[in-house]
């Protein structure tokens, strides 16, 4: 009887049996398995790229060494050079009977591509197309700049012609003792019904010649000479460019 009571006391004393199990022990809803990205393939690609770059760098160095060696003459210690001298070859002269052959070695073209003979290497062809495109773009830009510059120069020349014409007309009016007609500036939004005729270089030249012939005056010298002979001997020319 005593043993039975002890078992019941022990059963009631162990309250851990009534506690819920740990969350860690409960089956949890796991997220769906995500594909694991393996770095193995990426490492292989990087290794292959490094190997490819190393191979290309080595090829470029070999090509440079080959081109440098081609620029230097064959030394006299070379077996082929000795054989040519034994057959009567003179260094610097052309090969063949009476020097009718080649005097320079056959040119060498380094080809690294897999294209056949007569087909331009893909890299060389791509580079050539890029260079041609760059040349065309440069020429087009130069032509546009030249056209733009000539347009600006023409506009500036037209403005100078108008300005000099009005100056010459003002001086002529003073010399003729007549009233100077000032230009009326158009208000914003108002335009003349009839557009004025543009002033040309011929109009300017006629006014300049009238000043010179009748009053011995040069607009660009800025003075009136005593006589025609004094004007011709001291004035460098009729136009502004002459001054």
Automatic annotation (TrEMBL):
Limits of the G-patch domain:
76-122
Source organism: Anisodus acutangulus
Q: Where is this region: Disordered?
A: 1-43, 92-142, 178-201
Instruction: List the biased-composition ranges (Acidic residues).
Output: 1-12, 189-201
GO MF annotation, one: nucleic acid binding
Task: Write out the transmembrane intervals.
Answer: none
Source organism's superkingdom?
Eukaryota
What lineage does the source organism belong to? Eukaryota, Viridiplantae, Streptophyta, Embryophyta, Tracheophyta
What InterPro entries does the record point to?
DUF4187, G_patch_dom, GPATCH11
Which named protein is this?
G-patch domain-containing protein
